[in-house]
What we know:
By secondary structure, the chain is of the alpha/beta class. Helix content is 40%, strand content 16%. Strand 19 and strand 20 form a beta hairpin.
Amino acid sequence: IIRPRQSPRSAASLPRGLMIHILLSSVLSFGLVPAITRSSRLRRLRPVCDVYASVSDREVAELLCDASADDCDVAELEQRPMRLPPPRTPTRAGYVADPSLVSWAPFTYAEPYVRRSAARDYARTTLSKLPPLPPLRVVLMGGVAAGKGTIAPMLSQAFRVRCIGVGELLRGETRARRARGVEASHVMAAGVLLPDELVLQLLGERLGGGTDASRNGWLLDGFPRTTSQAEALVGGSWAELRPDAVVLVERPDELAREFALGRCCDSATGQTYHPVYAPAPAEICERLVWRVDDTSDALNRRLSDHKRSVEAIVGVFESAGIPLRRFDNARSELETFGEVADFLRSVAMGKLEAARSDLAGGRGRKMSLDEVGAAMQPSPADPADVAPYCFLDEDEEECLSRFQRERRRSAPDDVDAFCGAGESEGECVIRYKEEAGRGELLAAVQRCNSYALREFTPLLVGDEQVGWLNPTVLEALTTQLAVGRACEHVEASMLRSEAAAAAAGQCENGFAVRIAPGASGAKERSEFAAALVEELVEDGVIPRSKLRHELQDVHPFSAGFVAAGGGVAPVLRMERASMIYFGVPSYGVHVNGWVRDPRRPSSREPCAMWVATRSMSKATYPGLLDQMVAGGQPTALTFDENVRKECEEEASLPPEVIAAIEPAGSVSYRYATPKGLSTKVLMTHDVEMPQGLQPLCSDGEVEQFRLLPIAEVLRSLREDLPVWKPNSALVAIDFLVRHRLVSESEPGYAELVRLLRQRVS
């Protein structure tokens, strides 16, 4: 990342890597397209950001000629005028508004934690009092520097909708070199607008069908830009992309210019600052960067383009009867958010009312909004078809009511893992921070290894262990254990497997539970397992609303993870949602992206690592820090295949970077939850990221990527542990330990290393 200095340096004192970035900026300013096309060296470069430094025209011309062509004329290039933006510093914006306009008293710019708190409070104090709201589909429009990027994450957090940008989707396709991305890059390189059909196909795949955005709702930023695109959204051929509401945020041109020409970004945190409205702290001035296209000419052109097109687009949506509202954003974004959220709340309630008669159908009665909302909630199974959820002695009305209660009280997986019974999320975070306040990395590792193994009973298939049962599940299986057909007690002394006997011997009751003892094969064992799961559902141990009606392979602990089609048959298959109740391990992949110090190119010691901030719309751990790439492990893929898929989807990494990813071992941990003993095995991978290559989120699951110095990563893990997703903190610590960035003098070092490699059995 190129960082401007308050005292610009001459080119002679700048490293060559930085000069390359200046070179690229100059190429854009000179308009030297032929120079790029003639040089394979230049074609490989990608501008990431720009710098303002005192570099002479001749120095730039010499660099251009050196990198482009043998017949380049330095003297001729030197005479070409440089069209760079005015110089800027953390205290000088580079733009001076009219004195009567320079202070917009109503306009303020809050810090990120204040915005997150406002969105969270709105969801808790306002939305929580309403019936379950249906997924919303929202189009967010606005001109340059209108505040879309500030409002969008707040709406995403409050309404749990995926925030999708068309630009990010296209860049992701191009970066990953998928066929459509290559086609788009060729079209854009020719200076031609992308065909609407191509963009709509991309949106249809991301927002429609069975995607997470389709189930949970979406907020579309950066589209439509033309009336033809707007007409396609409201037309019949792309009905699944028709929005429920359109939000248009506006600012006066003078304020947009003043904010855009003064805004700068902290390269370490991604936070936006402004000399007047959000001054940067003095200690981070060295890290501030500006956008090279924030110039008066460019802004005037973009403002003019927006004005020419926006009213026609608005007319298309209004003619189609889609709720649309304009919001003045020349004030506190917190006030704007409150009004926008109220508007979307009213749209969602109207959607509920409109769906009430359709869902009532042949029920012979008018459904309550609570019932309609429950039926419209996203679910792997269709909630409107309640038959699979009903008991034999339960009528439809009782079934709907129970279904709603179960859905409301069942939290997303693992969210409650670190909170005590009856403890609110706020109280949990406060206690979490107090417990981790010792500044020791060991606290983060211990947090994910909280359990008493003696309280859990081994679950066996034959003499091979496949899971653990907690006292609640064990008690619920008492009747079946007494019959001894679907499952049976096995004393530790009767087990031939030393590992299984040792596991049974260390638990309080001294025995194990064998599932389907008389079954002749995996198919029959699976039938017995299904009967046990159904009994646990009927007894209320497993909420029926959590069932996914999807079977997952179960293998012995000794086999580890086995991908489907890997030549090893599972010992049984079990309902996916029940796995944690039976203590069956789950797997995942995490990828650490790191960079070396450009001043020490021969050193393999990481100097910084890429960290992702999870989208505020994520059901689990929204807004917390994560690895550059991370995801659960499906049985249909191998680890390598899953790593490749996740890297393309979450970070849009190019193929050559994905090919350089190296396996780095695993991190394993387990902790007790009200559901059971959660055992996780994360396969870790490392990749050295090329200098200047930034991960790009194209699927809306990451709010931002930040390149954090190793010292900042360590400080954050010691002092701000609650901002990390718990298992991602473990993977980060494992990375630091493996690269000897944590010394053996670290308090509890030996225990820390041991806990990072918990035995699954």
